User: Fold this.
Amino acid sequence: MKDLSLHILDIVQNSIRAKAQLIEIEIDERPENDQYIITVTDDGTGMNEEGLKRAIDPFYTSRTTRKVGLGLSLFKQNAEQTGGSLHIESVLNKGTKVTATFGFHHLDRPIMGDLVGCLLILICSPGKTNYVFKYRTPSGEYVLDTREIRKTLEDVPIDNPEVRIFLKEMIEENLEEIHISE
Amino acid sequence: MNKIKSLADLRKLQNEVQSKIKLREKGDNPDKLVQIKVSMATCGIASGAKETMTFFIDELEHQGIDAVVTQTGCMGYCYAEPTIELIIPGQAPVVYGYVTKAKAQEIIDKHIKLNQMVDGIIPVNYSSIDN
Assistant:
């Protein structure tokens, strides 16, 4: 995967499969510490200690359709290539937190890519999962909470095309305002 | 400079959209709509399923075709990603492999609009590595 946004899309699918109701996606730019931190937190089924140990094993998956599970291992590899790391914390029946730290100024840090597109795929899906998206840069912070959006929309579905276009513009404008890096 | 859009603007949009929805028939239920499920696990995403899904959403909206585009997990056809499952009401679901944008356009033009199947269907009697 070439973009960090695709990794986020991929990791969040794990949370969805763990029956999470609320998924928090956090991106934190800290150029002064040479850190670029991506965190995905969910309140899904979590893993026990054995599952946690095997989660980053590329030949372990909880699926039955195929025998490999590369999502987390690829994410880890990308983070480590930039002098960073990947940590997973998980408590059974409480949820899981995946933290990936990248070297901010490292040449091999992949670009973020189409972050807004990936967020829209997640947010504008008919399921009941809610998302909190936070993006922090030295110039400010942007927080998007789909619970607020759903409340505002009342009975208009969140996957309505006009709502989708509106959300796309809203997120793009707000991210531009806090000067996110590539 | 334009003002940044906020939840207050969303509320205005909500009123507009809601009145439009009320004008439409209430008989709209998902069982009667064309459904497209895009396989979106690691294998799919790495092969460009995101572009395929975005293309389906935009193109179907552009052409005014009522359809539900959702994501699903890995179907086990990792070699043929991006894969989609197409469900036309009253017909058996069909799985297409190697769905690039060009293929997606062909599927919309021929299968969804004219009900003619196109190349690239993965037959149901193919089984996964376990069997």
User: Anything to note?
Assistant: Residues 38 and 128 of chain B are 18 Å apart (CA to CA).
